Amino acid sequence: MCITEYDEVKTMNMFREEGREEGQLQALISQAEKRYITIEQATEEAGMTVEEFLEKMKFA
After folding, report:
1. Is 54 in contact with 26 (CB distance < 8 Å)?
2. What HEC string does the chain produce?
3. Is 2 left (phi over 0), alpha (psi -120 to 50) or beta?
């Protein structure tokens, strides 16, 4: 095996997982903005601090 060998399946799975996580975060941000859930509930679900979540909300 070569050190520069490209594994397309592994790479595509990585991109899918990142996209899935980003989509879940966007859904939590949307729910928090609409006040369906509290910021605290959203941060707990997202596994981040309130400060981290609020920073993500700024750029959503």
Report:
1. no
2. CCCCCCCHHHHHHHHHHHHHHHHHHHHHHHHHHCCCCCHHHHHHHHCCCHHHHHHHHHCC
3. beta
Query: How deeply is 42 buried, as exposed, middle or buried, from its count of CB atoms within 10 A (0-12, 13-18, 19+)?
Result: buried
32 contacts: CB under 8 Å, gap ≥ 6 = 38, 39, 41, 42, 53, 57
- Please give the chain's pLDDT, 60 residues, in tens: 566 778 889 989 999 999 999 999 999 999 999 999 999 999 999 999 999 999 999 987
